């Protein structure tokens, strides 16, 4: 696997992971719709796990 391809795979995995870590911090605060943030975090977690399992 080329260096560019490894970098692309890592980037594809890191994007959903970033979206998993941010929403819980907002849920802890006074965000008006915490359930939507939780659903978004769970969606991105499933996406990140599927990318990892496909690797």
Descriptive account of the structure:
The protein is mainly α and 55 residues long. It has one domain (3-54). It contains two helices and no strands. It has helices at 3-28, 34-54. The longest helix has 26 residues, at 3-28.
Strand content: under 5%
The count of DSSP E runs of length 2 or more, i.e. the number of strands, is 0
Q: What's the N-to-C terminus distance?
A: 12 Å
- Share in helix: over 70%
Cα shape? elongated
Low-confidence stretches: none
* Number of discrete domains: 1
Strand and helix order: HH
Mean pLDDT: 82
Radius of gyration: 14 Å
Q: Sheet with the most strands?
A: none
List the total number of helices. Answer: 2
In terms of topology, how is this protein built?
Blueprint: H1 3-28, H2 34-54
Helix pairs in contact: 1-2
What is this entry, summarized?
The protein is 85% helix and 0% strand. The protein has 55 residues and is mainly alpha-helical. The longest helix is centred in the N-terminal third of the chain and has 26 residues, at 3-28.
Supply database-style keywords.
mainly alpha, single chain
